[in-house]
Specification:
There is one protein chain. The chain is mostly beta strands. Helix content is 13%, strand content 49%. It has an 8-stranded antiparallel beta barrel. It has an 8-stranded antiparallel beta sheet with strand order 10-9-4-5-8-11-14-15. Strand 2 and strand 3 (58-66) form a beta hairpin.
C-alpha cells in the first residue's frame, strides 16, 4: 500500500509541475479568485464540497461524502473450519463509509473545455462494514460448545469464520486503509464560468487489500481466511478481494463569486 501511495503522490506532483509549466504568465491572477459550492451524488454517497481555481489549468476541491449506514442481513451457517454444521444464525452488516476528500483537477488542454485528470486522496475510517449477530446473545450456546470442543465453531461469513465472545455475540468489521489515494478522469469545472454547471467524474480509490477483524474475549485481532461456499455471502467474498473502490460521481456546482 505504501508503494502505491508514494507512486500516486509522485504522479500528482508531476502533473502539477507539467501543468504549471504550460500556464501563461497571468495565471497567478486566477489564484483562489473564485469559489464554488457543489453537491455530489454517486458511489461515494451524498456529499458537499467547495471548489477553488488555482490557475487556468488547475482546480481544487475539498469536501465530505456521507454514505447512509444501510443495514443488510443474511441467514448464515454456523459451522467449523472443517465444514461441520451446527445450524444457522441471522447476521447483520452495516455500512460505515463516510469520507473527506481533497482533489486536484488538472485540465491538460489550453482550450479548457472541461476534460480533466484528477489526483488526490480520500480519508475515512478503517472499518467500512460492521458485522454482528442480529439477536444479542443468540450465539451463547456456540460459545459454550467452543469451551470444550477442540474445533471451534462460528458463523461462516464470506471466507471468514467469526467465533462468538463470552456474551454470545459476534462483533467484527471489514477494514481497509484510512488514507486512500485517488486517480480519475472527468468532465466539467471545479468552478463554473457561469453561475451553474455539472461535473462528472469516474476513477478509483486505492484502499488496499481488505481484511476482517473481530473483537473477542482476547481483544481485537485479525481473522484468517477460510474457504466457505455459503451462497448468501458471495458479495462479501467478492468485496474482500477488491483492493480498489470504484468512484462514479456527479457534482452539481454553483459559483458563489
Amino acid at each position: 500500500m505504501a508503494t502505491k501511495r508514494h507512486f500516486f503522490i509522485l504522479l500528482a506532483a508531476l502533473l502539477l509541475a507539467t501543468t504549471a509549466a504550460w500556464a501563461d504568465d497571468n495565471n497567478d491572477k486566477n489564484l483562489f479568485n473564485h469559489m464554488s459550492v457543489g453537491i455530489n451524488i454517486g458511489t461515494n454517497g451524498v456529499g458537499g464540497d467547495i471548489g477553488l481555481p488555482i490557475t487556468n489549468l488547475l482546480g481544487l476541491r475539498v469536501g465530505y461524502n456521507w454514505v447512509p449506514r444501510v443495514k443488510f442481513s443474511d441467514e448464515v451457517d454456523i459451522e467449523t473450519i472443517d465444514g461441520s454444521g451446527f445450524g444457522s444464525e441471522e447476521v447483520e452488516g452495516k455500512l460505515n463509509m463516510g469520507t473527506f476528500h481533497a482533489l486536484i483537477d488538472v485540465y491538460p488542454f489550453r482550450n479548457n473545455h472541461g476534460f480533466h485528470i484528477t489526483a488526490g486522496a480520500y480519508l475515512g475510517q478503517g472499518g467500512v462494514v460492521d458485522i454482528y449477530n442480529k439477536v444479542p446473545g443468540s450465539l451463547l450456546s456456540t460459545y459454550e460448545r467452543n469451551q470444550v470442543a477442540p474445533n471451534p465453531a462460528g458463523v461462516a461469513f464470506g471466507d471468514y469464520l467469526l467465533t462468538p465472545d463470552k456474551n454470545g455475540n459476534v462483533n467484527a468489521y471489514m477494514r481497509v486503509a484510512k488514507f486512500r489515494p485517488y486517480l480519475g478522469v472527468g468532465f466539467g469545472h471545479a468552478v463554473p464560468k457561469g453561475r451553474f454547471t455539472c461535473q462528472f467524474d469516474m476513477g478509483v480509490q486505492f484502499w488496499g487489500k481488505p481484511s476482517v477483524w473481530i473483537n473477542g474475549d482476547g481483544g481485537e485481532h485479525e481473522v484468517e481466511k477460510s474457504d466457505f461456499d455459503s451462497e448468501p455471502n458471495k458479495f462479501f467474498k467478492f468485496a474482500t478481494k477488491l483492493s480498489v473502490y470504484p468512484v462514479i460521481n456527479l457534482r452539481i456546482v454553483g459559483r458563489i463569486f
